[in-house]
Amino acid sequence: MKQKIAAAFIMGFISTGLISFIIISTNAGFSENFLSKWYRSWMTAFTIIVPTILFFGPKVKRFVDYLFPKK
Q1: Could you tell me the pTM of the whole model?
Q2: DSSP string, 35-67
Q3: Which CA distances in Å does 1 have to 7, 45, 65?
Q4: Contact assessment for residue 15 and residue 49, using Cβ atoms and an 8 Å cutoff
């Protein structure tokens, strides 16, 4: 279980950081307060996505296993 939680935190950290950076820089540009906007957006996304990964991760894995059964 520790590994799943660690993986969710790492995946969430990387994906939300990258996506929020791209979206904020595309929509707002690199303004004077870019870093504060980006950090706030990143932390909001991160707090939402980690529980989402932990909840949906096992369901997605079961579904993928169903789609691609081991022979």
Answers
A1: 0.80
A2: HHHHHHHHHHHHHHHHHHHHHHHHHHHHHHHHH
A3: 10, 23, 19
A4: yes
